[in-house]
Design a protein that fits this description.
The protein has a single domain (14-191, 223-240), classed as 3-Layer(aba) Sandwich (Rossmann fold). 46% of the residues lie in helices and 17% in strands. It has 9 helices and 7 strands. The protein has helices spanning 2-11, 29-40, 52-62, 75-83, 109-130, 156-176, 192-198, 202-212, 221-233; strands at residues 20-24, 44-49, 66-69, 89-94, 134-143, 180-186, 241-244. A 7-stranded parallel beta sheet has the order 3-2-1-4-5-6-7, sandwiched between helices. Helix 5 (109-130) runs parallel beside helix 6 (156-176). 38% of the residues are buried.
């Protein structure tokens, strides 16, 4: 039985062979690693990002079919991008971005509206665009988080958006069926975005997590990417939220 399992693993065909994966926010961090893993599973990849220079470098590194530099929060640019996609497309992953950590009571009204809505509105716009474009049985993979589940003073926006994401994912799974929709919910991930947010405090945060997390190490982009690609390949999964935070939500 053990020998048969080894032979099967060696002979397994790439899980995304002949498929096309689109990564919104694919030039660095979780998005870039997911695109790289998708390529390893045989997929052609299309990536987008706001930063043209970083996007160009990632496109060359991945051997991407194509790439597009634009702000995905602009619905007109987003629609134009989806109209330009090669046909068929099998999977779309929405990476990039991060929570707003400004205290909500200190925000101006317009900033508050953006903080509460921008991520959810982006996902809805992407859902509208993938409807009818993704191959049946293909998938939309979203990135959320677990950090906002612990109620903390000053984190009203993060908590509210974190709570909304699983419900949005589940209802979209019904609305977009037979396209599958799933949510990956990381805690702290050691990415360039995390580095930019923490600055000089990054090393201390890494050390704290290594000491406190049940897994004894810091979660990296490769961990999240492996789960995202699995959700593309496993056609039995839809409407689900998968935590990947090394147990961070269970420790102080």
């Amino acid at each position: 039985m053990e020998t048969a399992t080894v032979i099967e693993a060696v002979q397994r065909a790439p899980g995304l062979l002949g498929q096309t994966v689109v990564v919104i926010g694919g030039s660095s961090g979780i998005g870039l690693k997911t695109a790289r893993n998708a390529r390893m599973e045989g997929a052609e990849v299309v990536i987008t990002a706001r930063n043209p220079e970083r996007l160009e470098k990632a496109t060359r590194e991945l051997g991407a079919v194509t790439s597009a530099a634009f702000d995905a929060s602009d619905p007109h640019l987003l629609g134009r991008f989806f109209d330009s996609l090669p046909d068929p497309v099998d999977h779309v992953m929405v990476a990039g971005g991060g929570p707003r950590y400004t205290r909500p009571l200190e925000m101006q009204p317009e900033e508050s509206r953006l903080a509460f809505s921008e991520r959810l509105v982006l996902i809805l716009e992407i859902a509208r665009n993938v409807a009818g474009r993704l191959r049946p049985g293909g998938s939309l993979v979203l990135i959320g988080g677990t950090g906002g589940r612990r109620i903390t003073k000053g984190y009203e926006v993060v908590s509210a958006v974190t709570a909304a994401m699983p419900a949005l994912t589940a209802t979209l799974a019904l609305d977009l069926a037979p396209i599958r929709v799933n949510l990956v919910a990381p805690g702290f991930v050691d990415t360039p975005l995390s580095a930019s947010l923490l600055g000089d405090g990054l090393d201390a945060r890494r050390a704290e997590l290594r000491a406190k997390l049940p897994i004894g190490r810091v979660v990296g982009p490769a961990d999240v990417a492996a789960l995202a690609v699995h959700l593309m390949i496993n056609t039995a999964v839809t409407g689900a939220t998968y935590d990947i935070d090394g147990g961070q939500q269970f420790v102080a």
